[in-house]
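Lay summary

Proteins are chains of building blocks that fold into shapes. Our project writes down both the chain and a compact code for its shape. Here are two examples, one after the other.
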Amino acid sequence: MTQAVALITPADRDWAARLESMRADELIGSAADRLEGKLVMSSSFGADSAVLLHLATRVLPRIKVIFVDTGYLFSETHAFMEALRRRLDLNIWAYRTRNDPAAYLAQAGEGAWTWRNDVERCCAANKNEPFERAMGELRPLGWLRGIRRQQSETRARVGVCDWSGRYNCWAISPIAAWTRKQVHDYLKEHDLPYHPLVEKGYTSIGCSPESCTRPITDGGDERGGRWAGTDKKECGLNI
């Protein structure tokens, strides 16, 4: 990242702390005002991504939506993205892996399209690098992300507004405190869809090879089907 390091003042921290008690739409509006509209958002177009996309575009209709295409996404994810693009008139900025997907797995010695032996390296090359490239080019002052504390233990203590030293901007999570029920109720109230794979048991949806995303049936951790059989918990974008 080439962006200059920002000076975080006590007033900045007081503002960030006040966001914790705001409704999600108020929070986004406050961030848009304070950061002079220099906000982007990221979306994986995953299970319940329609919630934050709807909230954000009601406040900032043309907000830039960073979408990372790893080359391994489910076809249903691309279809879901296009459906939401049309419905919400989304301003999607797609960033793609620099690699040819099939060639990458072969060169990395993975040996099979449906399984990754080194998921950390694969995420770094095909997901993290495109996102870092996006943030370096767009240089936002704030980044809206859709993570929630209830999703997993690794997200349980995420702040509504944290400073991201990695991306040198505010990482803002408007629905961090929302429960799964609140998500469901919001989708129902606004007639918004879940990702089509949710009905097949996928509660968190990333890349399609089996080692990256599986359906879950035990009703536990929402991200329990991600990187199954490994110690990996996060892709690294949420820092």
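And here is the second example, written the same way.
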Amino acid sequence: FTDVGYNSRLDEVQAAVLRVLLEQLDGWNDSRRAAAAAYEAHGLREVPGLRVLEAPPGTDPVHHLFVIGHERADDLSAALADNGIQSRGYYRRPVHLQPSMAEFGGEALDLPATAELARTNLALPMGTDLTEGEVGQVVAALREATTAAG
């Protein structure tokens, strides 16, 4: 990002459509929570080398993204792609290293945890239509990829 700004493009027509769709929001959120629970049920936390965040006590996240961490996140993403499964690393270039943040320290800032998280994050499939069977396929592919690499 070269400039700091806003992205506010909601017009009246979009607002009207979203008002109608709002009735479905709780169902969509429940579907995402069910997909996250399926990752747990299929043993995602038991896959060697994966880091899976736990929701803070008293929260009930809806998982816009389902992000894991692994030392070889890009290799896992490639292995998932070989199995027809999409995944993505987000914010590989941390915000403080974006050109628009140069005046706030940018490259001079030493943020090792931020660098580590940027390098190792991987967003797994997540959505309102993700089935338990599909989650099982993702976990199986991750297990196979981490086992094959040793």
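What can we say about the second shape? The two ends are 37 Å apart (CA to CA).
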